[in-house]
Amino acid sequence: MAEFAKFHLSGDIEDARTVLLDVLGQHGYRFSWETPTAGLAEKGSKAKAMLLGALSMHYKYSLGLQANPDQSVTVSIALGNTGVAGGAIGFSKVRSELDTLFTAVRQAYEMKGLLRHVEAG
Length: 121
Fold this sequence. Notes:
- The chain is an alpha+beta fold.
- The protein has a single domain (4-114), classed as Kinase associated domain 1, KA1 (TATA-Binding Protein).
- It has helices at residues 13-26, 46-52, 87-111, and strands at 4-9, 30-35, 38-43, 59-67, 73-79, 115-120.
- The longest helix has 25 residues, at 87-111.
């Protein structure tokens, strides 16, 4: 169970962002952006998660997009919360969800022909 995923891509940052938002949006995530290249993806209710623990999860992931000197792009998804409000089950669910997103995003970038390589850890 990973704590982060990084996707190294060909193409431009807008293509990378569009694919990322499409995939996460299909999984029910809403977005807030601090800058055009750094933001959060969230799903579920923070208040319900605090009250109900693992019965009502709140998923939060940090998103980053970075243009590289070699004309590639790096997209990162990292844990934005630990899931500890849900105990051991919540902790596991947050990491399992990241694994699910990793697979979905990787497949989308592969289908678009953008993926160079990936990292997870």
